[in-house]
Amino acid sequence: MDSKQLLRAWAKEQTEKKKRREPGVILRYRSRPRHEDEILCHNSSLGYGSFRYFVCVRGDEWKRCPCGWRPELGPHYASPEVVEYVKRKQERDDDLRQVAAHG
Fold it and tell me: Which H/E stretch holds residue 19?
């Protein structure tokens, strides 16, 4: 298979997954959830790389994110790695604030 055939096969597979609304599948970018089984997600923490948000079908692949991005939109989700990064960064920032307060 050449690269064009691989890309077409991948696109067809993604389209089929969307039709079946499988958990974790990205449905659309830069949108808000419209159905009960959809969740708002983002790909990386703010200020790190290229930030993108999108709507996914609810699934175990996504964890609730504590980063505080757009609280007016309600809870949102990210990959477990991003959630862990955000938590470590928040702990580090809290430690720095405590040192500054007592320094």
Answer: helix 3-20
pLDDT of residue 13: 78
Give the 3-state secondary structure percentages of the chain, helix then strand then coil, rounded to 5.
45, 15, 40
Structural domain boundaries in the chain: 21-102
pTM: 0.66
Q: What is the DSSP letter of 48?
A: S
Which segments of the chain have a pLDDT < 70? Answer: 18, 45-49, 103
Beta strands in 6-102 (DSSP E): 26-29, 38-42, 53-57, 63-64, 77-78
Residue 78 is predicted with a pLDDT of: 92
Separation of alpha carbons 69 and 51, rounded Å: 11
pLDDT of residue 49: 62
Sign of the four-CA dihedral 57, 61, 63, 67: negative
Residue 73 burial (10 A CB sphere; 0-12, 13-18, 19+):
exposed
